[in-house]
Design a protein that fits this description.
Chain A: InterPro entries: CPA3_antiporter_subunitB, MnhB, MrpA_C/MbhD. The complex is a heterodimer. By secondary structure, chain A is mostly helical. Chain A contains eleven helices and no strands. In chain A, helix 3 (57-77) runs parallel beside helix 9 (216-232), helix 7 runs antiparallel to helix 10 and helix 10 (242-267) packs antiparallel against helix 11. Classes of the chains: A mainly alpha, B mainly alpha.
Chain lengths: 326, 98
């Protein structure tokens, strides 16, 4: 039996991993939504430190903009709602369920750990093959080459998921999106300063993504954040709702499918890109994807924040009338 | 044990923790947070696998994780909208019962 020795591991790495594990436990164990959400946001920040340790700057940028930014905004926005009271469960039953869950979790973890302990230290063949083929992909950044050329079917399906989520969310809360009518001078200034800066940052991330960390996902996340801030600051044309937003979101998906057809006609393989026009095609599709993802994320945020405020306003309007009744 | 192995085991632990909580927690928003925790574990596991060996990390798992982050954000968004709808319907039902 091998003794697990931590002598090769840096103390700081161990501390960060321990902190990640503790915040993960807190995020699932705290019964109040506010506490669980805060623990989850801290968990995301600590994970970003680990992304730097495993040489993944692209993931760190995406996580900062999406995991911490947009998803954090969605969760925090959901907190102003009242947490519904949980039905009182039999205490013994709750303990039994937790015990069974812990036992099954331990078995699953043991199985996963067995697989991991047999992994070779050598990387899989796919990585070197992908790195070798980068020069034939049209772009020089390996991750962009994988996302938009070698495995662009994954990216096509991903944008399909995003479109369905945005359309579904919009359908559930179509007519009750709250509007910010009087943002006040401070928020107006924030909009003037931050929104153009974020749009510029999104454009830079998009173009830089062909040769260094960055790309459509990160740029789309930053654009989505810009649209959300613009909406919260009362910039009306930036409202990502209704038919216009839907057209922009669906355009990315349709253009990607069209690109697949062009690939089929030009090279004989669905979604294949020819080196002579691959760079132009990748940059064009990335631009459309950035707009699609950005508008879709803003649509999701608006839809998630819509109903409750309208309902609260209804209740507030009803309250005096009810109070006046004998 | 190397640093990458530590990251892999930590990722597997967080994944199992998140999946178990997703199945067992009743509150909808907390369940969504648990699902996000599980996805964090998967990402840690995949990125540690990508960084094995010397030289540049494997771009394929890194691209998968990037795709996963965007999909998870979309799932979080629609799940919050659905949770809000469910809770509102529950509230309406309570009002009718009263």
């Amino acid at each position: 039996m091998t003794v697990i020795a931590f002598s090769d591991v840096d103390v700081l790495d161990m501390l960060v991993v321990a902190a990640v594990a503790v915040t993960a436990i807190l995020a699932i164990a705290i019964p109040r939504r506010v506490g669980a959400t805060i623990a989850f946001l801290v968990f995301g920040l600590l994970l970003a430190l680990l992304w730097a340790r495993v040489a993944a700057p692209d993931v760190a940028i995406a996580e900062a903009a999406l995991g911490g930014g947009v998803a954090g905004a969605l969760l925090v926005d959901a907190l102003h709602r009242r947490q519904p009271a949980q039905p009182n469960r039999d205490r013994r039953r709750a303990v039994a369920i937790t015990a069974v869950g812990a036992a099954l979790g331990a078995v699953t973890f043991a199985a996963l750990a067995t697989v991991l302990s047999r992994l070779t230290a050598e990387p899989a063949d796919l990585g070197p093959l992908a790195l070798e083929a980068v020069e034939r992909s049209g772009v020089s950044h390996p991750i962009t080459a994988v996302l938009l050329n070698f495995r662009n079917l994954d990216t096509l399906l991903e944008i399909a998921v995003v479109v369905f989520a945005a359309v579904g969310a919009a359908a559930l809360s179509r007519d009750r999106i709250r509007t910010v009518t009087d943002p006040g001078p401070v928020r107006r200034v924030i909009a003037v300063i931050i929104v153009p800066a974020l749009v510029l940052l999104a454009a830079w991330l998009l173009v830089a993504g062909t040769s260094e960390p960055g790309g459509a996902f990160q740029a789309g996340a930053v654009l989505g954040a810009a649209l959300i801030i613009a909406h919260l600051c009362g910039v009306r044309p930036a409202r990502a709702a209704g038919g216009r937003a839907l057209v922009l979101v669906v355009a990315g998906l349709l253009a990607f499918i069209l690109l697949g057809g062009i690939g089929l006609a030009a090279t004989g393989t669905w979604l294949a890109l020819d080196l002579s026009w691959a760079f132009a095609a990748i940059l064009a599709i990335e631009t459309l994807l950035t707009v699609s993802i950005g508008v879709a994320l803003a649509m999701l945020f608006l839809a998630a924040g819509s109903r409750d405020d309208a309902a609260a306003a209804d209740r507030a309007a009803d309250a005096p009338a009810l109070g006046g009744a004998p | 044990m190397t640093t990458l192995q530590l990251f892999m085991y930590a990722g597997a632990f967080i994944l199992v923790l998140g999946v178990a909580a997703t199945l067992l927690v009743r509150d909808l928003i907390r369940r969504l947070i648990a699902l996000n925790v599980a996805s964090g574990g998967v990402m840690l596991l995949l990125l540690a696998l990508a960084d094995r060996g010397d030289g540049e990390p494997d771009p394929v798992p890194q691209a998968l994780v990037l795709t996963g982050i965007v999909v998870m954000a979309a799932v979080t968004g629609i799940a919050i909208v659905l949770a809000r709808r469910v809770e509102q319907l529950d509230d309406d039902l309570e009002e009718v019962e009263q």
